[in-house]
Amino acid sequence: MTENSTDLTVLVVDDDFRVASMHAAYVDAVPGFTALPPVNDARVVARTVAETRPDLVLLDLYLPHVSGLELLSVLDVDAFVLSASGEGESVRTALRRGALAYLVKPFAEKALADRLRAYARYRRLLAGGTHDQVAIDRARRVLLVESEQAPATAAATTEQSVLEAVTAATEDLTVMEVAEAVGISRATAQRYLSHLAQTGQINLGLRYGARGRPEHRYGPALS
Fold this sequence. Notes:
The protein is of the alpha/beta class. The chain has helices spanning 17-28, 45-52, 68-74, 88-96, 109-125, 133-142, 151-168, 175-182, 186-198, and strands spanning 8-13, 33-35, 56-59, 78-83, 101-104, 202-208, 214-220.
């Protein structure tokens, strides 16, 4: 059980304890994520995954005793590969065996943080129920983030994330609920929500709260 039971838990697997600790610290710095104690011995990874049931594993490829590619074949868990190798065959094999992302070490903290936030959105988009092809394709695209984006591209990505949070929700959301879902400030969420509502991409409605005060809520565009 983590300190915050609503956090997504992440297991870092790397035989270099200093690198593993650094990556675990990167994870803990992202709201909504908690790093489990890192594992440095590949031989105990399967048992640790079975015991701790992490949501995501950050897996190095070059490990003593058992390679990361071998572990990808047997671990029934979402995984990102973090490797010093960008060799095409390793990348293709990792993706073929189910890696949701492949980061070449060393990388900036922001690169991992961006992908963790994308992973959280991916999880939300595919949470519960049955999904049509549009929703499935949207969820897959969410994982394909770029860590170093031009400002205009970053703004477009944020707007898309706000739109996805609203359309994927099971009920209309407040500004604060959207901000928390996307991981942005309330003011930033309000700016994008206002634009999306004005352009007809989402619907703006009013709901009266317990104190009788109207509250703006945002939902999918009315068909």
